[in-house]
Structure to design on (125 residues):
């Protein structure tokens, strides 16, 4: 997973990831290429947690949790749909689903500014 935010200065984030669950209840683990855990994100109705080592922070929603972990608001509900091949409509976002069969997803946030580019390479387990 990589995320580029065209802010001043440009921000980039990349990590290996494991996504489980659904938009309502799920888990996202972010790791470095050598396998060190960067963060574990857990969400369920009424609770969103970011675990980073021994530090645990609570957020009001999964969207706020994802933004804290990656630096940009990524529409988690739509992400599950996009990965399943559904062209979920999210204002400001434009998904490119043509490469899903090859394990690739790209989505661009055009508004609000700054522009963000999300790229995901994945395997289904």
């Amino acid at each position: 997973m990589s995320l580029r935010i065209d802010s001043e200065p440009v921000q980039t984030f990349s990590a290996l990831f494991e996504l489980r669950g659904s938009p309502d209840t799920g888990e996202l683990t972010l790791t470095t290429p050598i396998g060190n855990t960067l963060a574990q994100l857990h969400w369920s109705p009424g609770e969103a947690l970011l675990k980073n080592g021994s530090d645990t922070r609570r957020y009001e929603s999964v969207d706020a949790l994802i933004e804290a972990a990656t630096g940009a608001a990524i529409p988690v509900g739509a992400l599950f749909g996009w990965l399943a091949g559904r062209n979920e409509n999210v204002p400001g976002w434009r998904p490119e689903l043509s490469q899903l069969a090859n394990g690739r997803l790209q989505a661009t946030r055009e508004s609000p500014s700054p522009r963000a580019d999300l790229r995901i390479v994945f395997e289904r387990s």
